[in-house]
Amino acid sequence: MRLTVLGCAGSFPGPESACSAYLVEAEGFRLLIDFGSGALSAMQRYSDMRAVDAILLTHLHCDHMLDACTYVVVRRYDPAGPLPPLPMYAPMGAAERIAAAYSAEGEPVDDVYTFYGLQPGTFPIGPFQVTVDRVNHPVETYGVRIEHGGHVLAYSADTAPCEALLRLAAGADLFLCEASYMDGVVNPPDLHLTGGEAGEAATKADVAKLLLTHLVPAWASEASIVEAAGAAYAGPVEVVRPGARYDL
């Protein structure tokens, strides 16, 4: 199983990165998790934009799904002909939200995507065993656990601390976890994690490696977030970058 980071900026595109988008590959199958603002550009840099087999959107905030709208053009109007519809796993309402963002008339996009509504549970996507659960964010949002070949990748999506996050991350080889806020200040509640909270979750879940993502350079110092995470978690901590690859 290979993870490729296409975009990792939090809440809005940063000066060096598109928003959240992560490509997970195994046995020739490519699963894209989230497709945030600017991620289609990064996909062309680090991957083949046509070679996607399924998409999972953790929630319907723009920084995690907006380029699924732009991607309609790629698949619908390819000069060689329309590409086959892609399975799209997403919260309920995704079809309407993508259609509304794609065109003012809300032109349907069911020729591009076949939609499957997410709900807590475990199910297969290609060669992967995928588990999703609701996490602590203002809109319907799912953290993700992906298993393949005896290895586990966990992804927090956007969340404040919650028990579901710990269940999804339990014993993971890689824990891709958001860390948007600074420790030691008053932050909006039930929205995002601090570096320290990400580290605490990694320790409680007994993960092998913590990958920090969804940092917001305009809001928080990367060095401070990493320091806070390292103070709460004794294992290896790394901030992900666009184009970074991790093999499990």
UniProtKB/TrEMBL annotation:
<dbReference type="Pfam" id="PF12706">
    <property type="entry name" value="Lactamase_B_2"/>
</dbReference>
<protein>
    <submittedName>
        <fullName>MBL fold metallo-hydrolase</fullName>
    </submittedName>
</protein>
<dbReference type="GO" id="GO:0042781">
    <property type="term" value="F:3'-tRNA processing endoribonuclease activity"/>
</dbReference>
<feature type="domain" description="Metallo-beta-lactamase">
    <location>
        <begin position="18"/>
        <end position="196"/>
    </location>
</feature>
<dbReference type="InterPro" id="IPR001279">
    <property type="entry name" value="Metallo-B-lactamas"/>
</dbReference>
<dbReference type="InterPro" id="IPR036866">
    <property type="entry name" value="RibonucZ/Hydroxyglut_hydro"/>
</dbReference>
<keyword id="KW-0378">Hydrolase</keyword>
